[in-house]
Write a structure and sequence with these properties.
The protein is an all-alpha fold and 272 residues long. It has one domain. The protein has nine helices and no strands. The chain is rod-shaped, with a radius of gyration of 28 Å. The N terminus is likely disordered.
Length: 272
């Protein structure tokens, strides 16, 4: 006879589920910034965006980076937005109080075979780890009251429930991280593309017969350097963000495994 499977707890992480929408909004913002802020005629000599930027004017200098700039800004803004979104999502997944303290308190309750105390801690804590533990405790109670199951079958049922609950939580914890990981390479490559285009324009200005076109030369060099800077910034932010949140998720996973092992061990001790 099989134990009645409890309904999986609703995932508590949440977050932005469509990164494409974020990407589109960031692109619109980047284009508006490029045309109306960086490309403002007031940033250039003679009020003409085709001229040199005013001395020391950073906005005009960025505008001279060319059409690759809004693309890089889109990637950069997307990394920032998704990083902030993951911060809130993983903070919610940790629960209301300190995760390490919660795990320690739950383990203490389980070692004393105080299931009600462990449940109360989970109800108070909330979050991904608490959801998984609470789900496993429900199965613990079910198999304990099911006389048709032997010890091995009961332990297997608890372990299966732990795996199912963990599988429900982990995908949303890792949500949008593949996008951030992609930006690591994509930002650098797009920045490199802008650098190459800028250098091509610079060398084309040098190749002109007679005196080189100083405006075209400086524009090409500006385009190359601005795109390099944005590409490096995007890639660096994406790498830092991805590694930071991956380590946070690893900590959550370890906490789930630690408490899950304690639940199984507690059942084995209580049913020798």
């Amino acid at each position: 006879m099989k134990t009645k499977s409890s309904k999986p707890a609703k995932n508590s992480v949440g977050g932005v589920r469509t990164a494409g929408v974020v990407l589109l909004i960031c692109f619109i913002i980047a284009v508006c910034l490029f045309n109306f802020l960086f490309g403002n005629p007031a940033n250039f000599q003679g009020g003409d965006p085709n001229n040199h930027p005013l001395p020391g004017n950073l906005l005009g200098t960025i505008y001279k980076g060319g059409v690759i700039v809004p693309v890089l800004q889109t990637l950069f803004l997307t990394v920032l937005v998704l990083s902030v979104e993951r911060w809130f999502a993983i903070r919610k997944a940790n629960g209301k109080s300190n995760l390490t303290k919660f795990v320690r308190n739950v383990k203490d309750c389980l070692e004393k075979n105080d299931l009600d105390g462990a449940r109360a801690l989970c109800e108070k804590q909330r979050g991904s780890v608490a959801n998984v533990v609470l789900s496993a405790l429900e199965t613990y109670s079910q198999v304990e009251n099911d006389s048709t199951l032997n010890k091995e079958q009961s332990v297997a049922a608890i372990q299966k429930r732990l795996e199912e609950a963990t599988a429900l939580e982990l995908p949303t914890l890792e949500q949008n991280l593949p996008v951030i990981a992609t930006m690591t390479t994509l930002g650098t490559l797009v920045g490199l593309l802008g650098t190459v285009i800028g250098m091509i324009r610079a060398f084309a200005a040098l190749a002109n017969a007679g005196a080189p076109d100083s405006i075209a030369l400086s524009t090409g060099i500006s385009e190359a350097l601005i795109n390099t800077a944005f590409g490096i910034a995007t890639g660096a932010c994406a790498v830092i963000s991805y590694n930071y949140y991956t380590s946070k998720i690893d900590k959550l996973t370890y906490s789930i495994d630690e408490v899950g092992f304690t639940i199984v061990a507690a059942y084995n001790v209580a049913h020798k």
